[in-house]
Amino acid sequence: MNILRRSLSLSLLLLGSLSLTAHEGMWIPTLLAKLNESEMKTMGMRLSAEDIYSINKSSLKDAIVQFNGGCTAEVISKEGLILTNHHCGYGQIQQHSSLQNDYLKNGFWAYNRSEELKNPGVTATFIVYIENVTEQILDGVQEAGANKNQVIARNISKTVEEATKNKKYEAVIKPFYYGNEYYMIVTKTYKDVRLVGAPPSAIGKFGGDTDNWVWPRHTGDFSLFRIYAGADNQPADISDKNVPYKPGHSLPISIKGVQEGDFAMIYGFPGRTQQYLHSYALEYTLTYGNPAKIAMRTASLKVIDAVMLKSDKTRIQYAAKQSRIANAWKKWQGESRGLEILGAVDTKQKFEEEFTARARKNNKKDYIDLDEQFTMMYANNTQLQLANDYFTELVAFGPEILRFTNRFDKLLSQYEGLTTEEQKKMATALLPGVTAYFKDYDLNVDREIFRSLIKLYIRGLEDRYLAPTLVLLKSRGEAEIDEYVDKVYSRSAFARQLMIETVLKNPSATGFAKLKKDPIYMLMKELYDKYASISPDYNAFTKDVDAGMELYVKGMMDLFPEKRFWPDANSTIRVSYGKVEGSDPKDGMRYKYYTTLDGIMEKYVPGNSDFEVPEKLRELYTTKNYGPYATNGSVPVAFTASLHTTGGNSG
What we know:
Radius of gyration: 26 Å
Helix content: 40-55%
Number of strands: 14
Oligomer: single chain
Structural class: alpha+beta
Distance between the termini: 7 Å
């Protein structure tokens, strides 16, 4: 399913222009009847807008799940079975895997309910209803002046509190069109979600990073989970007493397949789009942001990919981490290439010229100087943005030891003012996380990631954005940086499970004082403190940009009444639609709208981790024993459709 959702964006970004026409927009389901239903039916949809979204009766929305806070999943049975992508469930598959039960390599299938695997912390969220609350949230804003954000925050808090006072539901209010509108999304979240089935990685990740974000694609990117509920069918904590969830609606499964020209629709939770960005923001992304982030992740992946090939233990430990790093890494490469091929910066600049011209013609004074204001904002803050990007990559996606050490900061910063009992309580609370962390940690791998990334970090930033230790290292040679890295990892307690557990199990001021002087802890503090010193400037910059974007998008809708505008994706539920279509990525080249098992065998390379094919699948290919799934002598694998999927909609 993920293939359908990615394919148009993939072709645009990686292969250049297409002959098919994207049906642009990620539309709010509550507005389909007003904005989209007629067009959708003209294109072949046989549903009504109320069939898709209704609060008065069962509708498709009741079968669409936000899986674990990010991905999409679909309810496909009356007993809570949900389907999502293999890569969406990958972290859970990895957590359950070991050398004895290598579910990543061999796949997993529960043959009865008792074999389904529990996943603490994993959630399944349903939309109860969506409400336009713009009027309530912007009440009093015009009179608030500089206190605008405080008034909005207060109104949001009040509106959410009223919607959730019965304690049955959760609610979140998000800005749309950069704050020109606000919608409240009321939800119900289930917390007992169990793994039911997953293919081996040679199917679920077939093609690996090589094929990710490109077409033709042949990945069996799926996994199955089941939602469990209390006896009343309401959310309940994980328990053996829970029963399969009875959904308000489930999607029927058809094996008839699709034909070119069929109507296609995505209903899910796309992550984030930035379609209205100013050309200067896009230029920053192409010139500075993406190159820096790609280089950081390339360095990490070079280390991780090499060690995963050498050891099954390390492969299992780092599989989910590698996937987490690699997905955006590959996307950014295609994004940059596509934007450059399509001349996106030039296209935006021409639109901005037209925007300003219309503002002058219509005497819209608020809009006339916006282009110049954006240019100044971005031009004056290039290095500040770069510092934010580098810090995020190093700390959030780089060596794990920095994130792990930061967990101890509250204890080590406060222990001297705590009672012995309070120290013990905080130390004990940290212990379970230590066990979980070291289960999938390899000191040598982490050290080499740190070594590679810290050099890029030092070279990429001006001294004013570097922690003092890194400024000092910058003045030295590469050999001395290597020596520093080896030294901190050889001395750090945070790289050794036994040492950390000993301190936590026997809490004392002496033990905490030693941890406070640990070289990794001291460097982590320097990095975070330096970022804290520049974050006020970065926050002020983003606040100015957001204020400008709110006015800019309002101006677009005001000055271009002939256009239809949809709000950027922000992880809320949306509908995109189009048709099943092939593509013409290059002169003289035509892609079919589907791929088959034949293509898997064409790509098969024994011993290549990206293109290995399981023995059972090879046997089926040889015998052609495809059962009811055969089509024209093969088995369909994936298809493309002209749907708007930029920003992702996995699941």
